[in-house]
Helix-turn-helix transcriptional regulator (Jilunia laotingensis), 279 residues
Amino acid sequence: MRGSSSCGININCQECPKAVENTIIHASHPRGFHLPVQKCESNIMIFLLRGEALINSQEYAGTLLKAGEFILQAIGSKLEVLAMTDVECVCYQFNKPELFCEELYNRIMNEVTPPLIFSPLKILPELQFFLEGSRAYLSEAKICRELLSFKRKELGFILGNFYSDYELSTLVHPLSKYTTSFQYFVLENHSKVKTVEELAQLGGYTVTTFRRIFNTVFHEPVYEWMMNRRKEGIIYDLRYTDETISEICFNYGFESLPHFSNFCKKNFGASPRALRLKK
């Protein structure tokens, strides 16, 4: 989009410093298009405008998604898609469930039981109008940060005001389920590995995907989180266990006692022996 932009600057919006990666994408695919099984790197909502697509996931095993329907797949879940006809869709990707207000999200989680069998939701006229009216500029690789924020809020308003809590439970509960599952995996396994790369590999993620999901769920970089847990473990073992300093040193992957001692002095202000005496 060249010319005078919405912010009044004569510039190509794709080159504007305010432009960010577009997370609301309009796309078309021919019959036979196949997205092989993969873990979702973000939460994704698929709004099918035209055609039919076969969806395969834990929630929608062998489900035929038809024009005028939409689904949500949560971050970390596995998804496979096969276009049965030529298809046209709008895909909305997001990391945090910001399209739901906190009060609505908590009410659905605490008071609404989701269906035993998940089915796609119908695209109501108000949502159809939103999708149709946005297609012209959703195909661009980048979008104005402010416009993207407005579109997210508009989508959240439509979902919250034109769909029942029971219908929205098919969106909200999977978000919570995969967040809880990912948290459990990290808490159970972080002490078994030495690096972020090892933890990602243990969970079957690429490092990039794992970092993105971790930051979304724990709200801090994975390296910093693992380093803080490592420090907590070292202090606890020095003060409250009978393991020798050498055992603790090598249990936490240090190459030598001098290296371990320098780490303790830098992070705790004292040597391992002095920290042990403080118990």
